[in-house]
Each structure stands twice: as C-alpha cells, then as structure tokens.
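Limitations

Structures in this collection are predictions, not experimental determinations, and the ligand pose is part of the prediction. Treat each record accordingly. The example that follows, with L263DTV3 as the small molecule, is included so readers can see exactly what is and is not provided: the inputs are given verbatim, and the output is the predicted complex.
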Amino acid sequence: MDLKSNHTSPVLADAAPMNNTRLGIHSALLPYPHSGSPFSPSLLLTIPRRRPGILDDVRSSLFDAMKSSSPTHEKFAKESSSETTLGDSNIAYCNWMLKYPSALASFDQIANSANGKRIALFLDYDGTLSPIVDNPDHAFMSNAMRAAVSNVAKYFPTAIISGRSRDKVYEFVGLTELYYAGSHGMDIMGPVRPSSSDHKNCVRSTDKQGKEVNLFQPASEFLPMINEVFRSLVEITKDIVGAKVENNKFCVSVHYRNVDEKSWTTVGQSVERILKEYPRLRLTHGRKVLEVRPVLNWDKGKAVEFLLESLGLTNCDDVLPIYVGDDRTDEDAFKVLREGNSGYGIIVSSVPKESSAFYSLRDPSEVMEFLKTLVMWKQKNTL
Ligand SMILES: O=P(O)(O)OC[C@H]1O[C@H](O[C@H]2O[C@H](CO)[C@@H](O)[C@H](O)[C@H]2O)[C@H](O)[C@@H](O)[C@@H]1O
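Predicted complex:
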C-alpha cells in the first residue's frame, strides 16, 4: 500500500498549531485513501498549507522555532538586555512568577481549592519527573522521585502522559499502580469503564499484571505509516552528527540536542523533505526535538479528558484535576483545564515562558517536593 502522496508541506507553524487548524472531515487527510475511515470525524484535523515561494521565510522560521524550543538561561539573559547579568534573569524569573506563582509557595491556595474535592493527578515524564539529559535513552527518574510518585498514587488517581511510547515510559517509571498514556496521548491504557467502551478505537485488553484495562489508540491506522517514516528519517539523518531518531509508536521524534547548531537547519529541512510526501503527518516542536505525528485532533488535553471520563470523574464538581508538565505539548492539557475552569496546570520551567498553566515549579526536584506536600496535606486531612 502506498502510504505517500505528493502534497505541499504538512509543516505547521509552530507557535499555536491548534489555533491554525479547523476541525472536520477532509478526505485528503484520511490516513489511507479508502472509504469507511475508522476515525471519528471529530478526530480529523485539517491544516492550512503554506503558500509556495516563501522558502526563505520557511527556512528561517523553522530555524527560529528549533532555536526557541528549549531556551537556556544564557539565551534568556541575552535576549532580555544587552547588558544582562544573572541577577537580571532572576528578576525576570521573579516577575514571571507573579503570573505563574510557585505551586509550592501557593500550596495553601491549591489546598483550599482542593478541600472536599477529589484530586486527579496527571504527570508528564521528560523534564517533569526526570531531568532533561543529552541522551534520551538515559532519561532515568531517581528512586526518590519514583517513591514520591508511588506515594501520591496511593491517595489520588495518577496518570503519566508522555510523548514517549507507552512501553518506554512504563519501562522508565515502572509503577503498576498508575495509568499510562504514550505517544502524546494517542496510546492510553486506562481503567475499564462502560462509558469509555463507547469510544471508537477503544478495546478491552489486559495489562502486564493480567488486569483488565481499556486500550485506546485513536491513531492505530497510522502505525505502518509511522514505521515507514521512521525508517526514512533514520536514513536521511544518518550523516548528521548527533541527530537521533526515536520511534514513539504513533509518533516519531527527531532529536537535535547533540547536533551542532550550524546543522540544525539541515535537520529541519531533512525532516520537511520527508514529510512533503506524507500530508497526513504533521510536525510539532518540543525541547530540541522535532515531533512527527498524525494529523489527528488528539493531544494531551484530549487524553486528560478521556482519562477523567474513564475514571468516572467527568462533570463532577468535586473533582480537581492537576496537570504537571514542562513542554509545549503539555500546553494542550493546561488549556483544557483552564478553559474548562476545572483544574490547575503547573508548568515546570526554570526560565520564563508563556503558558496556559496557573502555577509553576522550577524543575523536577520541585515537582518531587510538590508531590510530597500533596501527600502530607492529604494525610493530615484524613486523620
Ligand atoms: O511528553 P514527554 O514525556 O515530556 O516527552 C517529550 C519528549 O521527551 C524526550 O525528549 C526530551 O527529553 C530527552 C531526555 O531528557 C532530551 O534528550 C530531549 O532533548 C528532549 O526533547 C523523548 O526522547 C521524546 O521522544 C519525547 O517526545
């Protein structure tokens, strides 16, 4: 089966991909050119194509997007002023915290909102539970963090929602008492609920312990395409020193953290060249990573809604979902909670960045403190 077709670039402008999309059915965006799509129409996204003849703009905007995907302290200091010092960037961070207060310093406020409510906890993995490291295969979480997550899960339903493949993130976390969503929410293993079995692409399955679970994989039809594009991306980037392609099952990551900055454009253009042949795939940006994923109206925000529904926690006034994450893909979840006025997003960042979150934490060690504080608060309140 030919998985490709010649359409113009599927690359989305980076800033706010979802704002540039229109929901609805579009036959050209079906994963395969056949009728009777397995997708619910509302899961299909249409994406505006770029005008031809603006290649230079495209190149520089791609490079800018790649550059800004994971700002460092030094970069932020340089951008703030020509004579900045570390003190200035601290001031900028403190100013930023006026808008996104520390979830630790504001814990009493969070606890007040949580009084009499059931907290549901959603945690991103990379940069949230584990520090960002150069080698994605070595992004291990500490035993102390594992213990903190395990403890918090004793009191609140807890799910990990990651861009990694579900198997990989489970391998890193290794806790059976959690729910896991991999591939940016396109691969969810959650509790069995009669309501969620109504969803298309939802099947009963068993987890590694033999427990009955619901498996939701809205992008399952894309699997052959993703595997094919993974191989092409490995091939096209094989001579770029430091580039690494990771197969995350329903999406592919092309890492450029270890690539010399002079070659970042080459990485970006190589990915764009491959994606030109796959109009049903799109490109988004993460932390020094380009993420190739299906054109599907499904993201971490939808995954949160799906899990809440599976847990029987939808439309309940006494539920407070809390989502902790560091990446642009976590913004979809922050938005769902903010727009629904239903819970709190907590952004993990040591530099100021615009976010739909309510609170902030500086790094994974503060995330661990926050999880421990939640447990202590719950224990105190259940005595
Ligand atoms: O949703 P997440 O759990 O945050 O996953 C997002 C991506 O995380 C990983 O990449 C990032 O972390 C790596 C390890 O610290 C780092 O080397 C890389 O530069 C970061 O982008 C993961 O490897 C990707 O596949 C995930 O999509």
